[in-house]
Please model this.
Amino acid sequence: MIIEKEYKEAILNGNISLAESLAKKAIDDNLEINLVIDQFSEAIREAGDLFEEGEFFLPELMRSAEAMKAAMAILEPKIMESKEDRFLGKIVIGTIEGDIHDIGKTLVAAIMSAEGFEVFDLGADVPVDKFIDKAEEVGAQLICISALLTTTMVGQKRLIDNLKKRNIRDKYKILIGGAPVSRKWVEEIGADGSAENAVSAVKLARKLLEV
Ligand code: B12
Model:
């Protein structure tokens, strides 16, 4: 995907006001919100690549993330404006313990909610059992676990193992996601699926729950 220069500039320079004005302009110009989010997402991934290559240090990555979050704060209410007037089921979502990456998870939650799911967003750094307890409490059908670090994705496995120990694995569909998640990992831990972006996550959720 080609990232438009301005989006790249806003995120890579951690320019919050430029990121905000691009988001506002996108809304004013009636651009397709998902495509705008894709632009910002690609730009932040590029920041991640620069960090990995040692071109960016943590403070720069953090500034990029702040610019991304500022843009998302403007775009997310727009997603909710198109909220469907229907109830498709209940979803518990969060980022796994030890992991504070919440931009992608929040996006998945917003799009699920706009589609008509009731979403219980537990935030980031969520202990495994908190997902399960919440799902039991609200009678959810789907548990969505985000992990962005290779060191925290083991929590996705632990959650499924704990469901099995409590003899309630079959009560829920489990979707996992985040940059390090592969098809192989989905199979290895016995999750029901994964999606590489929020729009495919919603499609898969509807397919799995047959709603
Ligand atoms: C932004 C960012 C940060 C921000 C996070 C801000 C925040 N509040 O979220 C800050 C600067 C704080 C940060 C910190 C760290 N980060 Co960081 N970070 C990133 C970065 C650049 C982008 C992540 C992001 O927001 N992407 C944009 C969103 C829209 O995309 P997404 O998260 O992938 O989500 C989409 C899909 O994955 C999917 N999805 C996501 N969740 C789910 C869940 C389900 C159920 C489903 C179905 C789908 C789904 O849908 C989403 C929407 O389309 C990534 C690079 C990358 N390639 O991912 C590195 C990255 C994840 N970080 C990395 C690292 C190492 C760290 C730190 C450990 C650095 C450090 N030394 O301290 C810390 C971790 C702290 C912690 N304990 O969590 C590494 C991880 C390497 C690894 N293999 O584990 C990466 C890959 C960078 C790199 N290339 O080195 N980070």
Observations:
- The chain has two domains: 5-81, 89-209.
- The longest helix spans residues 58-81.
- The CA atoms of residues 42 and 51 lie 14 Å apart.
